[in-house]
Design a protein that fits this description.
It is built from 2 helices and 33 strands. With 550 residues, the chain is mainly β. The protein is elongated and about 90 Å long.
Length: 550
């Protein structure tokens, strides 16, 4: 088995010790750090109410020349996204005491009607509603037949959920060539703005974009943060890519897009760097492809091929994906963890839909003899296949683990966090209780409740950026759902989960390595982070968003 790569299928491993012993690190018991998102809400204040006399009714509220008096009723609206497709609408009507009739026009050809008395000057209604993904204008009409007037207010609402549209891999940014920005390195502690909406047929109104971001031409250490807002990119306490001098490092990013259609890439190092960004898909608040999360499943390992199955220099390999294992025919794209190991020379690997011309993009960059992984979301091509192209002059082994797929039949929508937030950092003491900092021991796992501050019932998967640091030897990280309930860990009676065989990221001594992780969750809403190396490491986990039903 290649050092630092996921276990070969079929090779038995010793079972981990029970949680709380040498096989499990201390579970992360407390709440999240500050920054966990709340449900998004929009409001329309009472002063936006339009009041008119009812047709054919004499209005006691109407004064001289048809003007409405200060006693006119008003309507205040609040709409909160409760689930990807759902809204909770709150209506507060202020009026003289009277029987009121209410009509809610949801903006999707459906209406809800009701009645109720205004007592002590007000009446409140609360209505739930389920939408197809999209943007809507909710119009509320409150009629006071006693006084012969009606009050109308409206609020614009966009569903929290988004669905995925695959995009042929296309380079949107290359500061070395002046693509997407001026031809110049991004200076230390500065950012570059990248227009996404309207570029390469990415539509206006896009909510999030899938980018493979690569930092190169590095002369010192640093990190890259990708955000929807320049100020947020420069101040957020999370990172998407970490690098050292002389490295070219890629990482998949599912980035929120600003209302102006831009994303901002901040260079958190002190030295200038070049940045590349390749789009492979985007999310919009419209019906497209939902997501189905899978437990990591290995579909390719060229090391298993008798006689050696390396992808030779500048050669390609077609890999059957749709219709294989749990990925159905008709899947539009697949979420993969792509690992290169034992390359004979430096280069890059590109994953793209079979049947299309190889794009001028990269999915993984590697040096000779390096083992490196990167998450990718790849559109599925002809006959349900994807193609891998080795952009090196010499051969390399490749491993593919499938973690999910997108399809018209998949039910989960992506709900991006309003801003990424840190759920775990083993380097820092927690501000609650007596949870002290400390690395995850070798060959053990850390169970994490992700996150206790949110309504998790319909969540089926998380989008995380996992980073391993303070490494002293080669190793790899596995991320898997846990079958235990959180109470089992709190009461000390959790049973040991099986050790995963797939890898989410790989590291070498002294390296800080990030990777996007799309993971399932167990019935207890717990995710395990496994240190599969033989030395302890620190782990950092940033939450980017979630896949949710409802």
């Amino acid at each position: 088995m290649a050092a630092g790569v996921g276990l070969l299928p079929g090779i038995a491993q010793a079972a981990p010790a029970a949680p709380g012993g040498p096989g499990a690190a201390q579970p992360d018991l407390g709440p999240l750090e500050a920054g966990a998102p709340e449900n998004e809400s929009v409001r329309s204040s009472a002063d936006r109410t339009v009041v008119t006399p009812l047709a054919g009714a004499g209005s006691r509220v109407a004064g001289a020349q048809g003007k409405l008096s200060a006693a006119s009723p008003t309507v205040e609206l609040g709409a909160t996204a409760t689930y990807p497709h759902q809204v909770a609408l709150s209506v507060l009507a202020t009026s003289e005491d009277a029987e009121l009739d209410i009509t809610v026009d949801w903006g999707d050809v459906t209406k809800t009607e009701g009645q109720g008395p205004a007592r002590h000057g007000s009446k409140r209604w609360d209505f739930p509603h389920r939408y197809a993904l999209g943007s809507y204008t909710i119009k509320v009409t409150v009629k006071d037949t006693t006084h012969g007037v009606q009050a109308v207010n409206e609020v614009k609402f966009t569903t929290a959920g988004t669905e995925f549209t695959p995009h042929a891999p296309t380079r949107l940014l290359d500061t070395r060539a002046g693509v997407g920005a001026k031809k110049a390195k991004v200076a230390g502690r500065s950012s570059v703005a990248l227009k996404v909406a309207g570029a390469a047929q990415v539509p206006a109104g896009v909510r999030a974009v899938v980018l493979n971001v690569t930092v190169t031409s590095t002369t010192g250490p640093g990190h890259i943060s990708v955000q929807s807002d320049k100020g947020l990119a420069e101040t957020v306490q999370t990172s998407n890519v970490n690098y050292l001098a002389g490295q070219s490092v890629p990482n998949l990013v599912i980035a929120n897009v600003g209302k102006d259609g831009f994303v901002h890439l901040f260079n958190g190092g002190w030295e200038s760097v070049d940045l590349l960004a390749d789009v492979t898909g985007y999310f919009t608040a419209s019906e497209a492809s939902g997501y189905t999360a899978l437990n990591p499943t290995r579909v390719l390992d060229t090391r298993d091929v008798p006689g050696g199955g390396k992808i030779q220099g500048y050669d390609t390999l077609d890999v059957a994906i749709a219709g294989v294992g749990r990925v159905p025919k008709g899947a539009t794209a697949v979420a993969l963890n792509l690992t290169v190991t034992k390359p004979l020379q430096s280069g890059h690997l590109t994953a793209y839909p079979t049947g299309q011309e190889a794009p001028a993009t990269s999915s993984v960059n590697f040096a000779a003899e390096q083992t490196v992984a990167n998450s990718v979301i790849v559109p599925v091509g002809a006959e349900g296949k994807i193609t891998l192209r080795n952009g090196s002059w010499m051969g390399t082994d490749v491993i593919i683990d499938v973690v999910g797929y997108y399809s018209a039949d998949s039910q989960a929508a992506y709900v991006p966090a309003s801003a990424p937030y840190r759920a775990l950092d083993t380097r820092k003491d927690k501000w609650w209780g007596d949870k002290k900092s400390g690395p995850v021991p070798a060959r053990s796992y850390l169970p994490v409740h992700l996150p206790p501050g949110e309504d998790l019932y319909p969540v089926v998967g998380w989008v995380l950026n996992a980073t391993v640091t303070n490494t002293t030897e080669v190793g790899f990280l596995s991320v898997a759902a846990d079958h235990n309930a959180w109470e089992n860990y709190q009461h000390g009676n959790a049973t040991a989960p099986p050790r995963p065989v797939s890898s989410a990221l790989n590291w070498t001594a002294g390296a800080t390595v990030p990777n996007l992780v799309q993971t399932t969750i167990g019935q207890g809403m717990i995710v395990d982070f496994w240190n599969q190396g033989w030395k302890s490491v620190d782990m950092i986990v940033d939450v980017q968003g979630k896949y949710q039903l409802g």
